[in-house]
């Protein structure tokens, strides 16, 4: 194994119909028009020396190292900024340009610390490489002149930060003495990340990189790592490389956090990860990353990891470490005992969207083939199940319609119920790039998310609706489209079911759906809704992106269908730049749904009651399968409380923290006789467990994840499982102990079975993934290399189906006792219930969940920022710190749910989506008041949360 090094063409790859042919050093080359001379040369394998150029950034032309001679042109143009032209004759290695390059390098090196042997970039430094490439042998200017290694007094006085390294960021350092002011970091922050945190301050010799006049930690920087990636020297360097040295081999794998599914090179020394570097050939991220995937992987080897199986007879007993065999035999015996005593339907399992497709597929197979019931559900139930229902009903497929790069062709973007800069940061960077190019933006969100106004991006309309009124708002937009003659009539006539359309058009045109009538519910001024509707329908390609702010409502499925109606009515499905696109929360939400882990569906969304489908599975699995749908998670818990559901296998989920109405969840868990948890850490749910089976982190896994664009990406094992077994092996062992043989020896064989059983995966194999990098399903005979865009010529279901989407307000209403509405969300640096990110240095940005409250509501209650407040709903109450903020509107409060000590779900209710039971996390009626204490259980949790204290200690050590 060796380090994977992608080719750097120096300037971005251009795509153009017109081609130009030129000659470089006597060789002819044909490239798309707009390609630079530098990139054209690289396509011949000719590396022109360069420092300020890299192909993730537009050419800048500052270092003057890439000079070439071009016949018929005066001077020596920079090859990075010169476009290739038809008939051009270029020479890259004349005496003249060699001399000039050497001179440039001499100047750079005369002002550079000559500590290469002890430099952290030694072996991976472009300055060092270029000194070698130009044949630098001496520096005529000496090293005694003014330089940045020992800055003069005036310089130091002008900017005290200049003197020392900036080590404030937990993951990388900035050492100005090594900076060559190539501007790559500044441009990366602008062009790739879109944060604009860096500038070059000063002029000429005094130029330096500045994080807005402060240190990195105190700046606008969001720690995406793009500048570190772009830096050609050791100026911006990962602390892990400074500590451990350069990696020596790498493997490409997939981030285990959000549904963007970024590809990374895990760069290693032996079996130790040195750094995670975003992979340029990864199609979801194209070389970009966010702070979580790039830096927050330390949890994988955190000391809290449990690596030995454990059992206990009662949840009040202490845990006892046992062998794998004993743990698995115990669990199997308990499940069989329970089934014998309470019936075959008294046990079930929950799969995880954190796990691979192969792991998920095996758990649902275990339930159906070994438990012999359909009691399997997935954590996707609590996030995106309405997406599956809504898009399948209207369009015919339970998945988003586009690939991520489609956003580059969007003209109007509607973001509803999603906060991409925090939740899906790498996709947000793509979106912001398109917005900076001039695409228009409509944001529908109760809260002022960053996208509403961020550097060089401002929403045309912020529809600041009241929580729970998505359906009314989308209906109102569609009402304007229909009543103002903005329907894409040809498209609807050709592509959609006309009878359904006509019924829908009459419904939506009714006055009760008008912006004026719905304003009462939504709180959004009618004129604003009309403006947004006209923009969306008439602005060119209209693309809808949405998140859990749409799905986690009692009418989540209705909103998804309302958005599909709107997209069809405006002709915005079936080509680049348009579509209805769910931004999936967890890394494998799409995959866990695809793999048949819903209680009513086999893989590929086929109902268990369908005889033909069931027979195919029965034949392959060799057992009769249950025709009745099984229990959803809430039903399992209800039946546990009722005394009929007694045994649960939970792989990679923490339902005691992540599911709504914690009291009810824990009551259900406590009523069970055997709860088996498979996880990395002793999580909240493990408090109710009888068997603990150690899980493996993504770095220890082999398999695949499927991201929000239906892209199946390989997850490659970079280190052996710390507990000695992968999850898929444990599931096989458990099935065997239950008397059902599975017999795979590698996850690729599980994928082969998935492909045989699932029409949309029929063409997927590990060999193909090796060859193509990734594929988007459907991948089968009709689409052997996958399907980036869905519904291109016709909808998967045939004709697009308009659905009636009546607005039925949630029963959860603000009233005299609970006058405010709570809504929840995520923050960039933390992830879901925080099991991973809380065990990393990311805590430096978000040590605790806080409650955002509008100044008006805060003043009425005498609350100031930093006050401890009690947040109460009819389900329960918690205490947390308040932050007075105008990001929320009066009457609405907001918090995150990343910390177990907060227990935000103690107060959420058990209302759920009418079609799918997806919980209504996003609307809870609450009251807030000042308090001076935490709840007793919160006090206990705070004491138990030793990981926080350890991290705080390490941060303090690092600061010293
Ligand atoms: S880490 Fe990202 S956000 Fe921070 S300065 Fe670098 S490029 Fe900008
Ligand atoms: S910090 Fe690195 S990328 Fe930025 S200007 Fe200096 S050398 Fe170039
Ligand atoms: S955007 Fe999502 S997938 Fe990409 S690095 Fe960040 S957390 Fe990982
Ligand atoms: S690489 Fe062309 S000017 Fe720097």
From TrEMBL:
<dbReference type="InterPro" id="IPR036010">
    <property type="entry name" value="2Fe-2S_ferredoxin-like_sf"/>
</dbReference>
<dbReference type="InterPro" id="IPR027467">
    <property type="entry name" value="MopterinOxRdtase_cofactor_BS"/>
</dbReference>
<keyword id="KW-0004">4Fe-4S</keyword>
<dbReference type="InterPro" id="IPR006657">
    <property type="entry name" value="MoPterin_dinucl-bd_dom"/>
</dbReference>
<dbReference type="Pfam" id="PF04879">
    <property type="entry name" value="Molybdop_Fe4S4"/>
</dbReference>
<dbReference type="GO" id="GO:0003954">
    <property type="term" value="F:NADH dehydrogenase activity"/>
</dbReference>
<dbReference type="Pfam" id="PF13510">
    <property type="entry name" value="Fer2_4"/>
</dbReference>
<dbReference type="GO" id="GO:0016020">
    <property type="term" value="C:membrane"/>
</dbReference>
<dbReference type="InterPro" id="IPR001041">
    <property type="entry name" value="2Fe-2S_ferredoxin-type"/>
</dbReference>
<keyword id="KW-0677">Repeat</keyword>
<dbReference type="InterPro" id="IPR006656">
    <property type="entry name" value="Mopterin_OxRdtase"/>
</dbReference>
<keyword id="KW-0001">2Fe-2S</keyword>
<dbReference type="GO" id="GO:0046872">
    <property type="term" value="F:metal ion binding"/>
</dbReference>
<dbReference type="GO" id="GO:0043546">
    <property type="term" value="F:molybdopterin cofactor binding"/>
</dbReference>
<dbReference type="GO" id="GO:0008863">
    <property type="term" value="F:formate dehydrogenase (NAD+) activity"/>
</dbReference>
<dbReference type="InterPro" id="IPR019574">
    <property type="entry name" value="NADH_UbQ_OxRdtase_Gsu_4Fe4S-bd"/>
</dbReference>
<dbReference type="Pfam" id="PF00384">
    <property type="entry name" value="Molybdopterin"/>
</dbReference>
<dbReference type="InterPro" id="IPR006963">
    <property type="entry name" value="Mopterin_OxRdtase_4Fe-4S_dom"/>
</dbReference>
<dbReference type="InterPro" id="IPR041924">
    <property type="entry name" value="Formate_Dh-H_N"/>
</dbReference>
<feature type="domain" description="4Fe-4S ferredoxin-type">
    <location>
        <begin position="170"/>
        <end position="201"/>
    </location>
</feature>
<keyword id="KW-0479">Metal-binding</keyword>
<dbReference type="GO" id="GO:0051537">
    <property type="term" value="F:2 iron, 2 sulfur cluster binding"/>
</dbReference>
<dbReference type="Pfam" id="PF12838">
    <property type="entry name" value="Fer4_7"/>
</dbReference>
<dbReference type="GO" id="GO:0051539">
    <property type="term" value="F:4 iron, 4 sulfur cluster binding"/>
</dbReference>
<dbReference type="InterPro" id="IPR006478">
    <property type="entry name" value="Formate_DH_asu"/>
</dbReference>
<dbReference type="InterPro" id="IPR050123">
    <property type="entry name" value="Prok_molybdopt-oxidoreductase"/>
</dbReference>
<dbReference type="InterPro" id="IPR006655">
    <property type="entry name" value="Mopterin_OxRdtase_prok_CS"/>
</dbReference>
<protein>
    <submittedName>
        <fullName>Formate dehydrogenase subunit alpha</fullName>
    </submittedName>
</protein>
<keyword id="KW-0411">Iron-sulfur</keyword>
<feature type="domain" description="4Fe-4S Mo/W bis-MGD-type">
    <location>
        <begin position="248"/>
        <end position="304"/>
    </location>
</feature>
<keyword id="KW-0560">Oxidoreductase</keyword>
<dbReference type="GO" id="GO:1990204">
    <property type="term" value="C:oxidoreductase complex"/>
</dbReference>
<dbReference type="InterPro" id="IPR017896">
    <property type="entry name" value="4Fe4S_Fe-S-bd"/>
</dbReference>
<dbReference type="GO" id="GO:0015942">
    <property type="term" value="P:formate metabolic process"/>
</dbReference>
<dbReference type="Pfam" id="PF01568">
    <property type="entry name" value="Molydop_binding"/>
</dbReference>
<feature type="domain" description="4Fe-4S His(Cys)3-ligated-type">
    <location>
        <begin position="96"/>
        <end position="135"/>
    </location>
</feature>
<dbReference type="GO" id="GO:0022904">
    <property type="term" value="P:respiratory electron transport chain"/>
</dbReference>
<dbReference type="InterPro" id="IPR009010">
    <property type="entry name" value="Asp_de-COase-like_dom_sf"/>
</dbReference>
<comment type="similarity">
    <text>Belongs to the complex I 75 kDa subunit family.</text>
</comment>
<dbReference type="InterPro" id="IPR017900">
    <property type="entry name" value="4Fe4S_Fe_S_CS"/>
</dbReference>
<comment type="similarity">
    <text>In the C-terminal section; belongs to the prokaryotic molybdopterin-containing oxidoreductase family.</text>
</comment>
<feature type="domain" description="2Fe-2S ferredoxin-type">
    <location>
        <begin position="18"/>
        <end position="96"/>
    </location>
</feature>
